[in-house]
């Protein structure tokens, strides 16, 4: 590749890897935040907002920078790879090895939160006769919020999945990853009564101004 095109391609590869890891660590931030609201809020009133930012945006740098350095040194040492110029040798996936820790922690938090929700629904069983349905709704809602589907796909690698199973995996991976942010925004933001009330106020003020 020409030098300018190679630099642009490498920058795109690094940015893509950073965004993939940031996505997974923001899954973890969402899980920790909800866990703190449901379980840990009574223990501390400290504002963890800055810590969440460091965890979501900063932690991926810890993995991407060594990967970028290793790729750079490997390509400089191998003239054939250097000729490719884009961190992408033929037949090789350029992905940073995804740390399993965020997904594993999310799974533990997910199980803990479901246990708390189940206990509360059972305690109010007279008020919520359909508590099993409510638990099912909570479970289905938390799966995209916490990225629990990633835990399943850790064990179903590309090498192990073939045929129809491969297409099923690719479909669910792309669908859930693409719409995860949209689902979270709708379920936890736009469907929230307080948010809808504020949006209604803003809309009324805008109509009065115009």
Describe this structure in words.
- The longest helix is centred in the N-terminal third of the chain and has 38 residues, at 3-40.
- This protein has helices at 3-40, 49-77, 79-84, 101-123, 131-146, 149-155, 163-190, 193-209.
- Helix 1 (3-40) runs antiparallel to helix 2, helix 1 runs parallel beside helix 4 and helix 4 packs antiparallel against helix 5.
- It is built from eight helices and no strands.
- The chain has two domains: 1-77, no CATH class; 99-209, no CATH class.
- It has 210 residues and is mainly alpha-helical.
Keywords:
single chain; 210 residues; mainly alpha; GPCR_2_secretin-like; membrane
Return residue spans where pLDDT drops below 50 for at least 5 consecutive residues: 89-94
Distance between the termini: 55 Å
Number of strands: 0
Tell me the count of domains: 2
Average pLDDT over all residues: 76
Kindly estimate the percentage of residues that lie in beta strands according to DSSP: under 5%
Helix share bin: over 70%
Q: Based on CA inertia axes, which overall geometry fits?
A: globular
How many helices? The count is: 8
Structural class: mainly alpha
User: What is the string of helix and strand elements?
Assistant: HHHHHHHH
Radius of gyration equals: 22 Å
Major beta-sheet overview: none
GO molecular function: G protein-coupled peptide receptor activity; peptide hormone binding
Subcellular location: Membrane
Organism: Malurus elegans (Red-winged fairywren)
InterPro entries: GPCR_2 (IPR050332), GPCR_2-like_7TM (IPR017981), GPCR_2_secretin-like (IPR000832), GPCR_2_secretin-like_CS (IPR017983)
